[in-house]
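Kindly inspect this today.
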Amino acid sequence: MNAKPPVSRHSGARRNQRAESARDALGTPTAADTGLPPATTFAELGLPDELLTAMTDLEVTEPFPIQAATLPDALAGRDVLGRAQTGSGKTLAFGLALLVRTAGRRAEAKRPLALVLVPTRELAQQVGDALAPYARVLGLRMAAVVGGLSMGPQTAALKAGTEVLIATPGRLSDLIARRHCHLDGVGITVLDEADQMCDMGFLPQVAEILDQVRPDGQRLLFSATLDRNVDQLVERYLDEPVLASVDRARAAVTTMEHHVLNVHAADKYAAATEIAAREGRVLMFLDTKAAVDAFTRHLKSSGILAAALHSGKSQPQRTHTLDQFKRGDITVLVATNVAARGIHIDALDLVVNVDAPADPKDYLHRSGRTARAGNAGKAVTLVTPGQRRDVNKMMSEAGVRPTVTQVRSGEAELTRITGAQRPPAAKPVQTGKRPFRGMGTQAPKENRRAAQARQAAEARKAAQVRKSR
C-alpha cells in the first residue's frame, strides 16, 4: 500500500523547473498546488475508526491548516513538500499518513517499513511522543535511534522488528554501516526540519540514506522554513510533489508579540535576571554552552529555579531537565540553539534571547517555542548599543517588525513587557567578588597603583558632592 502511484521519470531540465516552481510556491501563501482539495474534517479522510477514536480521546478533532492541505495527498501516496510555522501541527500532518499507510504490515528484523529523519534527539523524542498513541491503536511498533544514547537497546529494537523508525542521520548511518539496519523495505520516508539537517552538515548522510530506501517509495518533506539549502533534496528525491505553504515564508505568528529591548551592556544581565524571576516559565537563549552554564549558576544563586540545556549534557540529563520544565519544577530553562527546534512546551508564553541570534532562521525557531498552536506569546530580544544595526537587519530578514523599547533593570517598563521582578534572594550569592556581567565581560583585576588612583578619584568626587550640598 505504501508505494507511490506510478509516475514518469523526468529529464534534468524538468527537475530544475520543478525545483524552481517549489521555490516560487514557497515564497507566497498558497494551498496545495495541483493537489487534492483540502480536508475540512478528519472523518472525510477515511481514517480507521480506531484511529479517529484515539484522536477524539486526545481532543484532536479538527485539522490544522497544514494537515488539511497535505493529508489528502499524503494518504493518496503522493510526495509532499510542506512548510508551516513551528507548532502548527506538522508532526500529525506527516505522521497520520505514515501510520495509516503502514498499518496492517509487519516488518522483518532490521528492516523498518517507514522512516522519519529528524536533525536532533529532542525532535525525535517529540515526534515519538506525538505518534505513539496512534501507533499503538494501529498495532504498529515504533522505535527511535539517536546519538547520545547506548546503541544496545536501539539495535535490540531493530532486531525485534519495528515498522516505524524515527532517527537522526548520524546514528542511523552508524547502524547501517554495522549492518544493524537495512532500508530496502522502507516505502515511506519523512524528512522533518530538512533545512536544519542541511545547516548542520547532514546533507551527505541524508542523501546516502535516501539512496537506500525503495526508489518507488513516497517521500514527505516538512519544515518550518524551506530555502535553497534543500533544493538538492527536492530535485533529486521528490517526484512532482504537492506544494503546501500555509503561512508566509518569513512571517511572524499573528498571536506572537515581538519585542526588542535596548539595554546598556552593563545592565543586560541584571535585566535578564529580573525577567527570569517573573511569575511563570521562561525559556532563555544564550550563544554558548559556557555562557549557559555560567548564567544558570548565577540564576540559581539568586534564588531562581533554573536549569541548563545544551549539547554538552547527556541525553538522560536533557530529558530530565525538559520534564522538570514541563512540570513546572523549574521555571527558567537556559539553553543554546539545541532547544530552538523540536521542543514543544505547552502554554509557554515568553522566550527571551539574552544573546541575540545572528541568523533570521535561528530567531524564528527560537521564538517559535512560544505562541504555538494559536496560543499567545512574546519573543523578547535584549540588544546592546553595539548590536542594534545587526539585529535590525536580522529582524528585517526574518520578516518581523518588533516593538522597540529602551529599558533598564528595576524599571516598570521592563516589568510591563516581561513580568520582570526582583529576584527572590535579597542578597544573591556571587561566584566571585564582582557581580555577574556575562561571559567575557568581567572587569580586569586592578594593580595596586590603579586601585589607589581609583580610590583617590572616588574621594575627590565625594568631596565635591559634599561641597555642593
